[in-house]
Amino acid sequence: MERCIVVLLFDGVDLLDVTGPPEVFSLLRREVDDASGYRVVLAAETMDPVTTAAGVRVLPDTTFQEASARSIDTLLVPGSVEVDDRRRVHAVADPTVVHWVKTLAGRSRRIASVCVGAHLLAAAGLLDGRRATTHWSTAQQLAAEHPSIEVDADPIFIRDHEVWTGAGITACLDLSLALVAEDFGEAVALRVARQLVMYLKRPSGQSQFSVPIEPVSTTRRMDDLRHYITRNLAEQLTVADLAAHAHVSDRQLTRIFKTELGMTPAAYLESARVEVARNQLESTDDTLERVASTCGFNTTATLIRAFRRKLHTTPTEYRNRFRHSGGSVDDH
């Protein structure tokens, strides 16, 4: 028996949010012997073409109104964003789309959001009291606008009973594979992953492999502090050093960081160092000792511990996956 998956369409939607999951679901037919599988239906407010954020127009299969009369197995909710003149990303939750998310969710066995689609689920009240994730760039926005949600920006997807939330755009493939595994078993999902030339499994707890260290500063003093940190990451900066630079007490500095960035100075320092180390691992052949030194980590062991804490992986595992140049090094 085919499972009906309804994917929402609306102007400005991220294209890969819409097309990625159906690619995963379509490959299932190669891996099962019977006629069971998924039937993907694209639903929009009208039958007019929808223009995605990529500028590609997509034709809906049905309207929201018609879809609301169906029995839906999985409601898949993609997202969209706006970028302001300072390149800050803001998730968009159109009230009309939110209304239909809430309506269609009532007809669905299971609900899943892709990337910033979590903001639509949140606006529809479907994430209240739940743990959820979204793309790291809008996680703070989600937490601020919906304090009843336990926002975790680190995992690539989270399941909370019948509601699933996914992180970055490409994480929609991992989320889709997890849905296949739930419906048809792990072995089938692994075979689909091979068709996609993907890792056989990235667990839901795996990090999005990015450290969001660009929260918005509202004061010139904080902007100056962040620039000072960036220029001096190789130095053994302390809270006292930063406080002296800002001409405030240690206690006041900690209060400023928590108010402005939602984290302690030490946590920000570590995030900044991991981010720079991440970029070096992607683009250079520097040894781990060299990376640790230039990023301000005392030892390679400290670098490894920071990567495990922030990204749930090691520097070597990260480099082997994301590097842009040849060669390899080993953790030691």
Blueprint (SSEs and pairs):
Layout lengths: L2 E6 L6 H13 L10 E7 L5 E2 L5 E2 L3 E2 H4 L4 E6 L3 E3 L5 E3 L3 H11 L2 E6 L4 H6 L7 E2 L3 H10 L4 E2 L5 E4 L2 E4 L4 H14 L1 H10 L24 H12 L7 H8 L3 H12 L3 H19 L4 H7 L5 H12 L3 H8 L10
Parallel strand pairs: 1-2, 1-6, 2-5, 6-9, 9-13, 10-11
Antiparallel strand pairs: 3-4, 7-8, 12-13
Annotation keywords:
332 residues, 14 helices, alpha/beta, 44% helix, disordered C terminus, two-stranded antiparallel ribbon, single chain, seven-stranded mixed sheet
Strand content: 5-15%
- Supply the number of helical segments: 14
Q: State the helicity in percent bands.
A: 40-55%
First and last CA, distance: 52 Å
Number of strands: 13
Tell me the overall shape.
Answer: globular
Mean pLDDT: 87
In terms of per-residue confidence, which ranges show pLDDT below 50 for 5 or more consecutive residues? 199-205, 325-332
Order of helices and strands: EHEEEEHEEEHEHEHEEEHHHHHHHHH
Q: How is the biggest beta sheet arranged?
A: 7 strands, mixed
Query: Structural class, from secondary structure content?
Result: alpha/beta
Order of strands across the main sheet: 5-2-1-6-9-13-12
Radius of gyration: 22 Å
